[in-house]
Amino acid sequence: MNAIFKALADPTRRKVLELLRQRPMSAGELSEHFPVSRPTMSAHFAVLREADLIEANKIGTSILYQLKLSVLEDALLGFTQLFGIGAGGRTTAEAAGEGLPKETREGADQ
Amino acid sequence: MSEIPVIPCARKHILFALKIAALMVGVALLLSLARQQGLLDGEWVLRANFVTIGLALAAYFNALPKMLDGSLPQSIRDATVAQGVRRVNGWAMTLAFLAWAALWAIAPQEFANIGAMAAVGAGVAVTVGYLVWKLVFCRASRSV
Predict the structure, then answer these.
(1) Which chain B residue has the Cα nearest residue A54?
(2) Which of A93, B86, B98, B102 would disulfide-bridge B65, Cβ 3.0–4.6 Å?
(3) pLDDT in tens for each of the 144 residues of chain B?
(4) Would you say B116 and B104 are in contact if contact means Cβ atoms under 8 Å apart?
(5) Mutation target among A55, A57, A69, A71 for the B interface, most CBs of B within 10 A
């Protein structure tokens, strides 16, 4: 549960989940929406994967990110977006660095 | 990538469903025992049993969108449809069974009986309606 709150505390990661609500997207498509470097985005994806909020699947040559939220997590995401929890203060790069997991699934961010 | 975790994933989901089923059966047995001992009357047993069933199924459907089937989507369109159907199904049925549990907890018995069935029926209708709409929409966009 802690991992879920940590993942939802960052506005960039919430925005990623919001984009994935519309449809599954590749890492490249998602990165286009953010003015941050690719490694930073990879760190954000890793935090979301570690919290089990997204799933990466390979289609052809690209990795497709899909939403993997329970109804409760979906509602929690809605609430955090509504009240802007964790919106101020830190930059997204700082937040991603903090949340960087020790292990990432090999090749998931290619 | 997702070929390896299919079996552990399926096992996890089956275990979760079995735990939910065991909870419902266990509570029903305890309630029957309490009734035999004269601790609860028939209406309380019925209500408590239906509230337990409602909450257990709400918990099951809450987790449903997270239960990916393990198979790789063939295309982005398939993945989009599958994700949408899972989310709508999860939300509709979770809310329906929460309404079921709430009605059996507080409403008069006659109203709870009809209202709870109507709530679940509405949840199923929303799910099936969304699925049909998506399939028709998908077929139409493929044929263009």
Answers:
(1) B66
(2) B86
(3) 444 455 667 788 889 999 999 999 999 999 999 999 988 888 899 999 999 999 999 999 999 888 866 666 777 788 888 888 999 999 999 999 999 999 999 999 999 999 999 999 999 999 999 999 988 887 777 665
(4) yes
(5) A71
Residues listed for chain A:
110
B71 vs A: CB within 8 A:
no
Q: What is the pLDDT of residue B51?
A: 95
C-alpha to C-alpha distance for B144 and B139, rounded to whole angstroms: 9
Residue B1 lies in a domain: no
- Domain A2-83: which CATH number of 3.40.1280.10, 1.10.10.10, 3.40.50.880, 1.10.15.40: 1.10.10.10
CA distance A89 to chain B (A): 32
Q: Which of B73, B76, B90 sits opposite A71 (nearest CB)?
A: B90
pTM assigned to the model: 0.80
Q: What gap in Å lies between CA A110 and CA A58, rounded to an integer? A: 10
B104 touching A, CB under 8 A?
no
Does any CB of chain A come closer than 8 Å to the CB of residue B143? no
Q: What CA–CA distance (Å, rounded) separates B107 from B101? A: 10
Q: How far apart are CA B81 and CA B62, in angstroms?
A: 19
